[in-house]
Design goal:
By secondary structure, this protein is mainly β. It has one helix at residues 32-50, and strands at residues 4-9, 12-17, 55-66, 74-79, 95-104, 110-122. The protein has a single domain (4-122), classed as Thiol Ester Dehydrase, Chain A. The protein is 14% helix and 39% strand. Strand 1 and strand 2 form a beta hairpin. The radius of gyration is 18 Å and the shape is elongated.
């Protein structure tokens, strides 16, 4: 895909990818799965910028709608309406968080709409391995 992150902040990520032969499908347009990969890249960057180090995230599923042919380079925008407060008691247990992503062509026409659900949970406490050292 050759993605480039254009904007990144908690709750928002914009990633672009050029149209080149490596993302072409059999009809010469941007391959649908390559567009999904771009959506997932935007979601992953958003998650990294949003989820605090006290928590971890894992993708759980993705729904996609292919709404138009993608004949140009693409821009994927992942955006949460509201950044969750990870200190709330709900985030003491695993929570599924849907991340909406829209992929646009160079004319700002949506070509893919996706929702990628991530599971956010507290990181398990690390236990340090202790090694006894003989005198």
């Amino acid at each position: 895909m050759l993605p480039t992150v254009r904007t990144l902040r908690p709750g928002f990520c914009e990633v672009r990818a050029p149209k080149w032969w490596g993302v072409h499908n059999h009809i010469g347009t941007f391959h649908a799965i390559a567009a999904c990969n771009l959506a997932e890249a935007a979601m992953g960057m958003l998650a990294e910028a949003t989820v605090p180090a006290t928590h971890r995230w894992l993708p759980r599923g993705m729904t996609t709608d292919y709404v138009a042919k993608a004949t140009t380079g693409l821009r994927a925008v992942a955006e949460l309406g509201e950044v969750p407060d990870f200190t709330e008691s709900d985030f003491g247990a695993p929570v599924d968080l849907p991340v909406p992503v829209t992929v646009y062509d160079s004319a700002d026409k949506p070509v893919v709409r996706a929702v990628i659900t991530i599971r956010v949970s507290p990181r398990p406490a690390r236990t340090e391995a202790r090694v006894a050292v003989a005198d």
